[in-house]
């Protein structure tokens, strides 16, 4: 008897953890997200959020939590996972935005907001953090995995901060193309970044030190940055060494 081919498995819905101590707001967000097909869970405290397993795909994080400051929760979530983090809070001061974004938040939304805007921002964040083509990006001695956020040079894995990875990813997705400073700031920090661009120089210098490949990231003065042609780099034919 011929076997009947199995139907393709239905992909699991993306999971969203709503970290919010206001039960009414949490319930409203949960209903709206569930209608859009997301699998929603709720944590009323920062401690509960940090203990949630399995790790969700997306975290909607309020900053005004009863036990831990939301920025600290954001920092620990980013250190322990690659979940997308969208801050949803009544705290709209620039200092709060900068602190959360610097600690790894992918977006920042100030209450009150509409569900349509939240969903649009969620989709945009997922496009950035969960690319549909999760293939390895290879450029000369550099290997970058968008799915796991791992980076290796000459086969040796190096540890990057989330911002350093985002900067490198901006350059690696289209090597050779000049990426402007503003484009990097908007993609790695915030779509409405109006702060000083010096912050990019600091992260770029740290990234270059960690990559330790002279000339890999070129500065195109007055325009931006790009990855250099591998043929122009010295030492790109080194054999991959063992991971230390």
Automatic annotation (TrEMBL):
The modification 4-aspartylphosphate is found at residue 62. Residues 134-229 form the OmpR/PhoB-type domain. One of its GO terms (cellular component) is protein-DNA complex. GO terms for biological process: regulation of DNA-templated transcription. Pfam families: Response_reg, Trans_reg_C. CDD domains: trans_reg_C (cd00383). Residues 134-229 bind DNA. It comes from the Bacteria. Keywords: DNA-binding, Phosphoprotein, Two-component regulatory system. GO terms for molecular function: phosphorelay response regulator activity; transcription cis-regulatory region binding. InterPro entries: CheY-like_superfamily, OmpR/PhoB-type_DNA-bd, Sig_transdc_resp-reg_receiver, WalR-like, WH-like_DNA-bd_sf. The keyword Repressor does not apply. Residues 15-126 form the Response regulatory domain. This is DNA-binding response OmpR family regulator. It comes from Kitasatospora viridis.
